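pipeline: protein-struct stage 2 | run 1193 | Adenosylmethionine-8-amino-7-oxononanoate aminotransferase
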Amino acid sequence: MSNHAWLERSRAAVWHPCTQMKRHESLPIVPIASADGVWLTDFDGKRYLDGVSSWWVNLFGHGHPRIKQAIRDQLDRLEHVMLAGFTHRPVVELSERLAKLSGLGHAFYGSDGASATEIALKMSFHYWKNSGQPGKTRFVSLENSYHGETVGALAVTDVPLFSSTYADLLKPGLRAPSPDARQAAAGETAADVARRAAQSLENLLAKHGAEIAAVIVEPLVQGAAGMAMHDPIYLSELRRLCDHYQVHLIADEIAVGFGRTGSFFAYQQAGIVPDFLCLSKGITGGFLPLSCVLTRDDIYQAFYHDDVARGFLHSHSYTGNALACAAALAVLDIFEQENVLEANRAKAEDFTRLMAPLRQHPAVRHFRQRGMIWAFDVDTPRADFALAYFSAMLKRGCLLRPIGKTVYFMPPYILSRDEMAGLVEASLDALDEVLASGQSLTGDPTALP
Ligand SMILES: *Cc1c(COP(=O)(O)O)cnc(C)c1O
């Protein structure tokens, strides 16, 4: 069956995520038949370089043999067993290894990022209740934050396009300024911006600290905001303030964990440890849905009691799925045995050099990079930039999904130099095409997250 037949059937039967489906009258859905490495192949045989790791999850590209083998091996032993009252080898080993990597001794599992956010928020809230401080019920999130789209997670997400429709469902929280380095005035550094944002947060905590359970942040890079990057000093300030005002620090590393920013966890670049750490996306290398919240042993202890209701009575049917945990263990093996962080450091430097012509392009603003993330803003009046650029890149055999007027690369770590060079060339070419032509599709600038 051809692309066309599959896309028609998909349009008729599948409700696609984060999409105004009417858009697909003019913008074709791309049916993917198979994938290998950084390449996706459609039903007509056309290939696309996956420049965003399929929404940031396919860390090592598609079909990585070690992850495939680990799932196969596990499949022959145990695919799943409920985790209430039962346990199994992959979930124990994964929890032990994540504890060693993070310094946070207990792991609680979910199936997607938004549930990890929900778990961390509920645990923090419940901890304060169990600890005789039931007044600490509110959460602080940052401007332009993104922590998922379930009702609890959406309340700490600052993307009005996603949240304003549901405002009546959401418990209002407090919002602190983003430390986004793009706000630097002339002569200011990213660290100056970070200190200013931390000062505003301090004012908020000084006033409301007694009512606040936790501050939730995306360490170093606010992804869905358009790869807004900040100086690590913000995180060390945040740690200091959370300690001082007795507020939990929730690090949402769903997007930035697993080496994406250059260190295994992003918060490590600030020399801190959070109270809760949310992980998902890259955790299984894009093979199976899994998320995890790690926390300190003393927080775990506050739930340990004869009273059942003091326990954390939260669950998902697939909690700790054995196949997903086996995939995650394979991901950790790859990191250890293939020296991924070190290899990425050299790659990132090389790729940044390859991007010099993009950085120097007259329409490019705020070119930025951290680890294996690159982003830049495009100075264009086109409100439909994201869609137009996405289409122009598809035509050139590349998958990039700009956020508003921000173009970013979040490639699989296995991307080769030649593949990156090709991606950069296509990006430049597409940029000139989109800037030269007029508006063709009607749309708002934030339509392609
Ligand atoms: C993607 C993401 C989430 C939500 O994860 P889902 O699996 O899509 O629910 C939460 N926080 C951050 C930082 C993310 O990037």
